User: Which sequence fits this backbone?
């Protein structure tokens, strides 16, 4: 029976020959030796597979990886397919024994699950800002950082991955200028991106024709977006757009004429916002560019 070091050497040789990681199981079905960190295997499974909490827990037990500690799952998306430079600088934020919680999930996307002191949204944002700073400052690569909820056991990781992916998808469509994408701030957008294309088409049939056609002219769309961003405050909206209040009123009246909704009313503003989001998602899904 070879000693443990020789056993690992044999596994590494086999890995080089077959081109994939190798696991050696004991009589009880648990993994006793492998060519990769069990945590990296579980993280990859959660991020790249539609895996259930129960199945991930089963795999964790099989790999002998019982605990995770307090963590948050972050997805870092870049425009580059080669992630080596970004991964190297991001790895500097991890301790040596923590780097297996940083993987290349797919071309252009890193998955990172750093240990956190507390499962606190403020701490999550600080970490996201740290990822952003080192990626852009040291690697010179623009990234977007999406994250969902924290997790403290393997069963909670699939839900954290789902939320992070939805936040990333919502950011691609609705918030292309935002670099940090917390799921907790994008829940409506995350809900809309999950709507089936058939539902989007049927919904738009009930809406004013402007949403199914070429859409509102860009000036009106910007005006509506600014009004919503400023919580329907007309004075702040006019100031942000550098226009007179009378000009704002004229544009809002024009939107009302085209859509039937007066965006100065909360109910109409909510309906307009939802319709615009569904129209945009319907177009993106028709193009096959999301999810």
Assistant:
């Amino acid at each position: 029976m070879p000693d443990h070091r020789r056993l690992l050497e044999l596994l590494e040789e086999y890995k080089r020959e077959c081109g994939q990681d190798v696991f050696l199981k004991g009589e009880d079905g648990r993994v006793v030796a492998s060519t990769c960190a069990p945590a990296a295997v579980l993280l990859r499974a959660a991020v790249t597979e539609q895996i259930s909490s129960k199945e991930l827990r089963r795999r964790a037990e099989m790999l002998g990886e019982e605990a995770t500690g307090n963590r948050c799952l972050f997805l870092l998306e870049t425009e580059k397919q080669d992630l080596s430079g970004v991964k190297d600088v991001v790895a500097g934020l991890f301790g040596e024994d923590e780097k297996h919680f940083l993987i290349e999930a797919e071309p252009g996307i890193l998955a990172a699950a750093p240990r956190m002191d507390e499962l606190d949204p403020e701490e999550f944002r600080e970490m996201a800002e740290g990822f952003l700073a080192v990626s852009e400052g040291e690697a010179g690569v623009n990234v977007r950082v999406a994250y969902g909820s924290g997790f403290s056991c393997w069963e909670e990781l699939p839900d954290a991955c789902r939320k992070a992916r939805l936040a990333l998808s919502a950011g691609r469509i609705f918030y292309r200028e935002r670099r940090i994408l917390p799921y907790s701030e994008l829940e409506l957008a995350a809900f809309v991106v999950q709507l089936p294309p058939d539902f989007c088409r049927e919904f738009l049939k009930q809406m004013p024709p402007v949403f199914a056609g070429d859409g509102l002219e860009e000036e009106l769309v910007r005006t509506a977006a600014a009004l919503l961003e400023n919580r329907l405050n007309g004075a702040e909206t006019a100031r942000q757009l550098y226009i007179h209040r009378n000009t704002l009123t004229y544009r809002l009246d024009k939107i009302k004429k085209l859509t039937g909704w007066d965006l100065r009313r909360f109910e109409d503003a909510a309906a307009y916002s939802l319709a615009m989001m569904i129209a945009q998602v319907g177009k993106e899904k028709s193009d096959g560019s999301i999810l």
